């Protein structure tokens, strides 16, 4: 490798996914010169192998399930999905894995894009090895932001490499529907991809090492999603670990600790994520390659004056929308420090503090039924030592739910801090609840008193009237 040039910028961003793009956007909006480095497609994991393609696969499945619960419509939607049309729709939303539009956007904010592998090369310094092997060195006057995200974690199983398993990338970009699919894992990726491929025609077997799906949510969320997967034809087995895998011709064979031998055409491992930091030069600044990066609430790496870690790499909340939120906070903090602001607003909920990472993280799981949550579960709140009370409501008790779907099944739980009389967590499970979670997010982030929520009147007859049922249950408990 030979050094060809060295260029100075105010800010250098490693990784041009949604998080890196937002850091660059905030830096440019503050008048800071900005370089952004990307080794793959501009737009990152979310645009091409995660959020967008997965939701494009799931939307037809969920829409058909909803339609099948509507009188006068259900008989018209009993047939199979048009798998080719669904996959083509998915391809459209990934721009056929081309990033021209995203590059145009970067050009529009006047951020300089460097294609190649970016690595830290000491304090405030980044090397970029381009596709031609030439190396450019970039220096940052104010900040380097690491926004390199995560990659799939595969277990250490003999023969796994030869099997060529799916990870989330293959599951969201496959161009053919496997007749049989094994999904290993019980988290969000596992249940969403099981939902999508079962709806597209695969016979899905879900193998979960633990005893429940969606273990980080309220227990009823995983229970309701598991029931729906089973009703759709999926085989869901909890308390089951994969002990070995082989490929026999075109068939994958999974062996389990329960003595089962399960055959399929493909096997998806959705068993966690690890930080994409193993080869970005962390050792040149005294950090451990491959590690998660600890940060303060302004997203600055602990012990550093110039290095920021934004998005999944800091392990605070592995969600695209939360990473973009962090990017807005980090961009504001970088700009303020660059301008010489003597005291940043780093108190909770301040302009330079990513407080929502601790108190108000929203998430939607796009299964049928959907599961949505924000803030703390009951178990998390109790573990944190908060004085809390939870109330539960069967969502079928809401008039709007019955109108939404015949036989609507769902559940809601509100967790209230009884000292402060504010909602600290809310979980909803049921068809269409993903569109309800932002109202809960506003209530949690805004620390709106329960007494004031009585005056936030839900429209009748909508599913959002579940708020009234929850407040009544809390008052009457």
UniProtKB/TrEMBL annotation:
<dbReference type="InterPro" id="IPR050151">
    <property type="entry name" value="Class-I_Pyr_Nuc-Dis_Oxidored"/>
</dbReference>
<keyword id="KW-0274">FAD</keyword>
<keyword id="KW-0285">Flavoprotein</keyword>
<dbReference type="InterPro" id="IPR001100">
    <property type="entry name" value="Pyr_nuc-diS_OxRdtase"/>
</dbReference>
<comment type="similarity">
    <text>Belongs to the class-I pyridine nucleotide-disulfide oxidoreductase family.</text>
</comment>
<dbReference type="GO" id="GO:0050660">
    <property type="term" value="F:flavin adenine dinucleotide binding"/>
</dbReference>
<dbReference type="InterPro" id="IPR016156">
    <property type="entry name" value="FAD/NAD-linked_Rdtase_dimer_sf"/>
</dbReference>
<dbReference type="GO" id="GO:0006103">
    <property type="term" value="P:2-oxoglutarate metabolic process"/>
</dbReference>
<feature type="binding site">
    <location>
        <position position="312"/>
    </location>
    <ligand>
        <name>FAD</name>
    </ligand>
</feature>
<feature type="binding site">
    <location>
        <position position="55"/>
    </location>
    <ligand>
        <name>FAD</name>
    </ligand>
</feature>
<feature type="binding site">
    <location>
        <position position="118"/>
    </location>
    <ligand>
        <name>FAD</name>
    </ligand>
</feature>
<feature type="binding site">
    <location>
        <position position="272"/>
    </location>
    <ligand>
        <name>NAD(+)</name>
    </ligand>
</feature>
<keyword id="KW-0520">NAD</keyword>
<feature type="binding site">
    <location>
        <begin position="185"/>
        <end position="192"/>
    </location>
    <ligand>
        <name>NAD(+)</name>
    </ligand>
</feature>
<feature type="domain" description="FAD/NAD(P)-binding">
    <location>
        <begin position="9"/>
        <end position="321"/>
    </location>
</feature>
<dbReference type="Pfam" id="PF07992">
    <property type="entry name" value="Pyr_redox_2"/>
</dbReference>
<dbReference type="InterPro" id="IPR036188">
    <property type="entry name" value="FAD/NAD-bd_sf"/>
</dbReference>
<keyword id="KW-0547">Nucleotide-binding</keyword>
<feature type="disulfide bond" description="Redox-active">
    <location>
        <begin position="46"/>
        <end position="51"/>
    </location>
</feature>
<dbReference type="Pfam" id="PF02852">
    <property type="entry name" value="Pyr_redox_dim"/>
</dbReference>
<dbReference type="InterPro" id="IPR004099">
    <property type="entry name" value="Pyr_nucl-diS_OxRdtase_dimer"/>
</dbReference>
<protein>
    <submittedName>
        <fullName>Pyridine nucleotide-disulfide oxidoreductase</fullName>
    </submittedName>
</protein>
<dbReference type="GO" id="GO:0004148">
    <property type="term" value="F:dihydrolipoyl dehydrogenase (NADH) activity"/>
</dbReference>
<feature type="domain" description="Pyridine nucleotide-disulphide oxidoreductase dimerisation">
    <location>
        <begin position="361"/>
        <end position="467"/>
    </location>
</feature>
<dbReference type="InterPro" id="IPR023753">
    <property type="entry name" value="FAD/NAD-binding_dom"/>
</dbReference>
């Amino acid at each position: 490798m030979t050094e060809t040039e060295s260029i100075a910028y105010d800010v250098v961003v490693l990784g041009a996914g949604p998080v890196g793009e937002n850091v660059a956007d905030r830096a440019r909006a503050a008048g800071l010169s900005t370089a952004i480095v990307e080794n793959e497609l501009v737009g990152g994991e979310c645009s091409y192998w995660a959020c967008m393609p997965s939701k494009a696969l799931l939307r037809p499945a969920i829409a058909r399930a909803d339609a099948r619960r509507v009188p006068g419509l259900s008989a018209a939607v009993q047939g199979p999905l048009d798998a080719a049309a669904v996959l083509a729709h998915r391809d459209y939303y990934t721009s056929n894995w081309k990033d021209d539009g995203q590059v145009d956007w970067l050009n529009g904010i006047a951020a300089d894009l460097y294609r190649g592998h970016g690595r830290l090369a000491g304090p405030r310094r980044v090397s970029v090895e381009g596709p031609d092997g030439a190396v450019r060195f970039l220096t940052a006057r104010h900040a380097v932001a690491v926004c390199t995200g995560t990659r799939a974690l595969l277990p250490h199983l003999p023969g796994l490499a030869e099997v060529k398993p799916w990870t989330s990338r293959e599951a969201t970009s496959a161009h053919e529907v496997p007749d049989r699919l094994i999904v290993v894992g019980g988290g969000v990726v596992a249940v969403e991809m099981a939902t999508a491929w079962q709806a597209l025609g695969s016979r899905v077997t879900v193998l979960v090492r633990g005893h429940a799906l969606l273990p980080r949510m309220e227990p009823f969320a995983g229970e309701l999603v598991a029931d729906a997967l089973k009703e759709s034809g999926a085989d869901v087995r909890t308390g089951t670990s994969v002990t070995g895998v082989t490929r026999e011709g075109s068939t994958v064979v999974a062996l389990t600790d329960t003595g089962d031998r399960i055959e399929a055409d493909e096997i998806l491992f959705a068993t966690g994520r690890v930080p994409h930091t193993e080869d970005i030069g962390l050792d040149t600044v005294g950090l451990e390659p491959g590690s998660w990066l600890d940060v303060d609430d302004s997203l600055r790496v602990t012990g550093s004056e110039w290095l920021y870690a934004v998005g999944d790499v800091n392990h605070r909340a592995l969600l695209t929308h939360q990473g973009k939120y962090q990017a807005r906070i980090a961009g504001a903090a970088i700009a303020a420090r660059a301008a010489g602001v003597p005291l940043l607003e780093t108190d909770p909920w301040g302009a330079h503090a990513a407080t929502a990472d601790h108190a108000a993280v929203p998430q939607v799981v796009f299964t049928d039924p959907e599961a949505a949550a924000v803030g703390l579960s009951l178990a998390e709140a109790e573990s944190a030592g908060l004085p809390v009370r939870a109330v539960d409501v069967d969502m079928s008790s809401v008039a709007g739910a019955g109108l939404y779907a015949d036989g609507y099944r769902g559940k809601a739980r509100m967790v209230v801090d009884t000292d402060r009389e504010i909602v600290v967590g809310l979980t909803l499970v049921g068809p269409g609840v993903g569109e309800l979670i932002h109202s809960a997010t506003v209530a949690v982030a805004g620390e709106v008193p329960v007494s004031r929520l009585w005056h936030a009147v839900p429209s009748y007859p909508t599913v959002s009237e579940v708020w009234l049922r929850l407040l009544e249950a809390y008052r009457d408990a």
